[in-house]
Amino acid sequence: MLNLSKEKLVEMYRLMVKIRLFEEKVFELYAQNLVPGTIHLYTGQEAVAVGVCSALRKDDYITSTHRGHGHCIAKGADVKRVMAEILGKKTGYCKGKGGSMHIADFSIGMLGATAVVGAGIPIAAGAGLSIKLRGTDQVVACFFGDGASNQGTFHEGINMAAIWSLPVIFVCENNLYAMGTRQSMVMRIENIADRAAAYGIPGVVVDGNDVLAVYEATSKAAERARKGEGPTLIECKTYRHRGHSRVDPAKYRPREEVEAWLAKDPIKRFREKLLGLNVLTEAEIQQIDREVAAEIEEAVRYAMESPYPAPEEALEDVYA
Ligand SMILES: Cc1ncc(C[n+]2csc(CCOP(=O)(O)OP(=O)(O)O)c2C)c(N)n1
Ligand SMILES: [Mg+2]
Could you tell me the pTM of the whole model? Predict the structure, then answer.
């Protein structure tokens, strides 16, 4: 299995469960009216964030989106500080003033989430240019959705990264919808990866609910990028389990479609694979699940007990 050590596989499983339980907790807290602002949950797409980030080094970069909690956690963010930020607390990544869609942690290479759809793409190209100018062998992984791939920033960012052979891995998480708009209503093509041809770079379609397939595609793209051979566009076919954001019951999705994708749950699939290959026993899996649940409970406790920022701090850290 890709020659990955048991330790690495277990770490990947643990991260996927961590994202799932984190998001379920955020949903619960939202229902209790404890989350100021909106939230976009990553549930169902865990294999993409974990497959990509597990193939990166700590000093590599990522850029994220409005659906960014999973990307942060997969790159190694502290769940306590992510949770505190979502609850608007002073101990959060942005001192409680940024919320769910603005988390960044430069110490782990997480360059930031953004509420502006497609805005991470030129930022990733810029980070790629900085790597090239500094002459290091780092890479940038840039997450964005199917909807974002219809933005002008997609064309501009990828074209620029391509002509300058920048070390960027463009990761399109195609979950079939941009808010309530189905991909087929706004695109004449089925595979967004086909667009790579327009920029003269490789485009790859991957089963985005298979963490190992995502890992493998990212490793190849990272190797190319580190050698100075330029960017790759990886399209991960996946599905969000919940609606677009907190208030969306996702009634626009056919029931059979939802059920078919729930059956392809990336965590369930990875768990079955690890059990089938005797990497982990049922008891070990349950133990990991319990440990992660305790870590998330601890993050909630930390966030709940943390203070809100003081009113006098409202204008601090404002740059524009
Ligand atoms: C520039 C811009 N246009 C519109 C919006 C409103 N908006 C927020 S999320 C979203 C859909 C994004 O879809 P996609 O890129 O597929 O990501 P997903 O939500 O599926 O993860 C839209 C239109 C926005 N935030 N920014
Ligand atoms: Mg989408």
Answer: 0.98
Residue nearest to atom 5 of ligand 1 (CA): 117
What angle do helix axes 46-54 and 266-276 make, rounded to 10 degrees?
60
Could you give the percent of the chain with pLDDT greater than 90? 97
> Does the annotation count 252 as an active-site position?
yes
289 belongs to a structural domain = yes
Distance 72 CA to ligand 1 centre (A): 18
Q: Is residue 318 part of a domain?
A: no
Q: 109 in the Ramachandran plot: left (φ > 0), alpha (ψ -120 to 50) or beta?
A: left
Strands 203-207 and 232-237: what pairing?
Answer: parallel
Tally of domains within the chain? 1
Q: Smallest Cα–Cα separation from 236: which of 101, 114, 98, 141?
A: 141
The domain in which residue 269 lies consists of 6-177+185-239+247-304
Asked if the model's pLDDT at residue 2 lies above 80, the reply is: no
Residue with the smallest CA separation from ligand 1 atom 13 is 178
The per-residue pLDDT of the chain, averaged, comes to: 97
Q: How far is the CA of 281 from the centre of ligand 2 (A)?
A: 35
**Is 102 a known active-site residue?**
no
Tokens of 85: 């930020």
What is the Cα–Cα distance from 264 to 163, expressed in whole angstroms? 37
SS3 22: helix
Question: What residues are in contact with ligand 1 under a 6 Å CB criterion?
Answer: 66-67, 115-117, 145-148, 175, 177-179, 244
The residue length of the chain stands at 320
State yes or no: is 244 an active-site residue. yes
CATH number of the domain to which 223 belongs: 3.40.50.970
Host H or E run for residue 182: strand 181-182
Instruction: For residue 319, name the pLDDT band (cuts at 50, 70, 90).
Output: confident
